[in-house]
Each structure stands twice: as structure tokens, then as C-alpha cells.
Amino acid sequence: MATADKRLPRREIITKAVCGKGRKYSTITHTVTPPHHPTSILGAWIINHQYEAVKSGDGIEVIGSYDINIWYSYNKNSQTDVAKETVSYVELVPLSYVDPKHRSSTEEVSAEATQEPNCVEANISANGSSVLIRVEREYAVEMVAETKVYVLVDPHGYDDDGKDVDFGLGDDGDYEDLDSDLLEDDL
């Protein structure tokens, strides 16, 4: 508040606010060993993704799991099968922004998968007995906590004489004239 006049009275308001944010994109390779030596990969996909967020040091850990399903042929492309494997993971997402004045005892964290785990490549390993699956995923995390907001107090007060104040927002929710290029993502 260096630019504010120190003679004006001010108040400290304690409120909950976003006090930390982060985002992380990553790729990881999993090895799945089907019961038969694969001849070719016919498809690979990720299902049943579940996760939660927990505070961990200077970041937020996303702890989760998903199922990898691989449809493959074997026995010289004469038969097919689906190999299934559940994978557990822990992804540490660093906070790129942290309000140093937040109350750490009130922290609540959340995570959103901005890119659900997705198979981007599946190859048979060099020894021919397993499949290498490359998975991409991305998370955006937030930490909400109590923090202080300082507001200046008008020494003369505000007298509205009991009148309703119209801020010209209207009740029709007309947002058609908004320029979507001016809207921005906070993360």
C-alpha cells in the first residue's frame, strides 16, 4: 500500500482466496507385459482415471490411478487379446504462484486434469515380450487459504439515502456483446 495516503483509515479483512496456483504437463512411459508375446498393437487406451490432491511441501501432489488396456494380436497375427493393467502414480505439481501472507493452517487444495491421461504411443519392446505405452497428462492445481485484504475507509462515509443503486448490469444476462478475445484464463 505504498501509494496510498497513510493518513486514511484502513481495515484488514480476512477472507478465503486463491493463494497458490500451478500447472504441470508430463509424459511417462509404462511397460505392460501381456500373457502372450504381441505380434502387433491394434489399440491402446486409458480408462477409469481417478485422482485426488494433497498439499506436499512447496507443491501439490496429485495421487491417482488409471487402467491401461492394450488390444494386441499374437501368434503371428492369428489371435487377439486385451491386456489390462492398473497403474498408480504420484505427480508433484509445483506452485508457480504463492501468496506468502496466507494462513497455512487454512489451506485447501484441488486439482483439475486439464489433459486426462491419454495414450500417445504404443510400441512392442525390443525383446518382443512387452508393450511400451507413452502417456501424456496435465494438471492445474490451486491452493485456497485465508489471507488479509486491506481496504481504505472513506472518512466521510457513504450515504445512499436508502436508495437502490443501479450499476447498469441489467437482469437479462446479456453477454452477447462480450469480446471473447479479451477474456483470459487465470491459470
Automatic annotation (TrEMBL):
<feature type="compositionally biased region" description="Acidic residues">
    <location>
        <begin position="169"/>
        <end position="187"/>
    </location>
</feature>
<keyword id="KW-0946">Virion</keyword>
<protein>
    <submittedName>
        <fullName>Spore coat protein</fullName>
    </submittedName>
</protein>
<dbReference type="Pfam" id="PF10628">
    <property type="entry name" value="CotE"/>
</dbReference>
<keyword id="KW-0167">Capsid protein</keyword>
<dbReference type="InterPro" id="IPR018901">
    <property type="entry name" value="Spore_coat_CotE"/>
</dbReference>
<feature type="region of interest" description="Disordered">
    <location>
        <begin position="163"/>
        <end position="187"/>
    </location>
</feature>
